[in-house]
Design goal:
With about 100 residues, the chain is of the alpha+beta class. The protein has a single domain, classed as RRM (RNA recognition motif) domain (Alpha-Beta Plaits), CATH 3.30.70.330. Helices cover about 25% and strands about 35% of the residues. A hairpin with a 2-residue loop joins strand 4 and strand 5. The longest helix has 12 residues. The radius of gyration is 15 Å and the shape is globular.
């Protein structure tokens, strides 16, 4: 069964660190938990018409929150740091 594009690449992450990484042609995205590195590379190349050199994937634990006297843990999520060829960029945040 093949995953849909939005199940692989969910949204770009806009953080201070992610913004600094964009200067080195590296972009950060939230991805689906079942997404693999080759799938992420293929989707980014297809959607943004760029050449991906490397994909790093990190699975992050959910946050623990207090609810009354107990604690609950949010769901885990996955992010990918995508490195492009030097000189290429994704025009997501131009003029922001």
């Amino acid at each position: 069964m093949q995953m849909q594009l939005y199940e692989i690449l969910r949204r770009p992450l806009i953080t201070e660190k992610a913004t600094e990484l964009q200067e080195d042609s590296r972009y950060v995205f939230e991805v689906g938990r079942k997404a693999t590195k080759p799938q992420i590379k293929q989707v980014v190349e297809q959607m943004f018409k760029v050449n991906v050199v490397k994909v790093n994937v990190i699975t992050l634990p959910g946050k623990t929150r207090r609810v009354g006297r107990g604690q609950i843990t949010g769901s885990r999520w996955k992010k990918a740091i995508v490195s492009l060829k030097p000189g290429q960029k994704i025009n997501l945040f131009e003029g922001v």
